[in-house]
Amino acid sequence: MDLSLPNPSWSKDMRLLFDQFMKKSEDGSWKHLPSYKNKFSRRIEDIKVFFPDAKLIKEKISQAQLFPRNFEEGLGFEYAMFHNHAEDRTVCIFQGGPYLQGAPGFLHGGAIATMIDSTLGMTALIAGGIVMTANLNINFKRPIPLCSVVVINSQVDKVEGRKLFLSCNIRSVDEQTLYSEATSKNLCLFWVWFSLSYISLGFVFGV
Ligand SMILES: CCCCCCCCCCCCCCCC(=O)SCCNC(=O)CCNC(=O)[C@H](O)C(C)(C)COP(=O)(O)OP(=O)(O)OC[C@H]1O[C@@H](n2cnc3c(N)ncnc32)[C@H](O)[C@@H]1OP(=O)(O)O
After folding, report:
1. Residue 189 in contact with residue 173, Cβ under 8 Å?
2. CB under 8 Å to 163, separation ≥6 — which residues?
3. By C-alpha distance, which of 183, 184, 195, 65 is closest to 130?
4. How far is the CA of 133 from the centre of ligand 1 (A)?
5. CB of 15 closer than 6 A to ligand 1?
6. pLDDT tens, residue by residue, 62-78
7. CA-CA distance, 13 to 46, in Å (whole number)?
8. Helix (H, G, I), strand (E, B), or coil: what is residue 168?
9. Among 187, 193, 207, which is best to mutate for testing ligand 1, by the most ligand atoms less than 8 A from CB?
10. Where are the domains of the chain?
11. How many A from CA of 162 to the centre of ligand 1?
């Protein structure tokens, strides 16, 4: 089930943004990226090629779920991503639920980092195939109020061989408040041929 579609826990702002991006997607310039709890977990074989010595706990893999997708509706990470191929950028609309509290009334820094890593990771994945985050630097400029809606704008800045250099920022819906800025270095594990096939698959599998 695609978990990036509106549900009763979404605020008015969240629905408004979703509808705006779905409208923008009508001419094909933007594409809504579906997101599933565990659709790609079964692709562990593809990743194990690069980490043959990883000690995977086989009996646990069948329970694997994408971390941000395993909270009950409205209590954790409510989000939807849209990708603009021409501009090589991804926008994530994100509403952080009450179970993501850090300082009282505000989002935990790790929850913010999760959505930054997920959005940058998805941007890198579409640009370069299966990637791993090698380095992630975040500046937390302002605390994000719990249950508020924010917009994560992420883009590829540079590609050097297998290395992708990305950046993103998190702003309020009215764009007046800059909450966080981040940069990341992602390493492609599978190279271009795979990523092209994966891009087509990516929109099937989603995350
Ligand atoms: C088909 C299956 C479908 C799957 C569908 C998935 C769905 C997708 C959902 C999207 C949303 C989730 C996205 C989550 C993304 C994560 O959260 S990934 C998890 C967190 N990251 C990790 O666990 C990575 C752990 N680290 C590693 O595995 C390895 O260090 C890496 C990153 C793969 C790199 O290792 P490597 O390939 O052996 O590369 P290595 O030779 O060490 O370095 C290559 C180059 O990169 C540079 N480099 C390496 N590390 C660094 C660093 N930390 N800083 C700067 N430069 C570095 C090196 O200096 C070197 O540069 P040059 O000398 O060539 O100039």
Report:
1. no
2. 134, 185, 186, 187, 188
3. 195
4. 5
5. no
6. 888 999 999 999 999 99
7. 38
8. strand
9. 187
10. 12-188
11. 9
- DSSP three-state, residue 192: helix
How much is the ipTM here? 0.91
Which atom of ligand 1 approaches the CA of 44 most closely? 2
The pTM of this model reads 0.91
Q: Is the dihedral of CA 193, 37, 83, 77 positive or negative?
A: negative
Domain 12-188 has what CATH class? Answer: alpha beta
Please give the chain's pLDDT, 207 residues, in tens: 999 999 999 999 999 999 999 999 999 999 999 999 987 665 677 777 888 888 888 888 888 899 999 999 999 999 999 999 999 899 999 999 999 999 999 999 999 999 999 999 999 999 988 899 999 999 999 999 999 999 999 999 999 999 999 999 999 999 999 999 999 999 998 654 444 444 544 443 444
Distance 19 CA to ligand 1 centre (A): 34
Q: What is the CB neighbour count within 10 angstroms for residue 28?
A: 9
**DSSP code of 53?**
T
Helices 192-205 and 109-128 meet at what angle, rounded to 10? 120
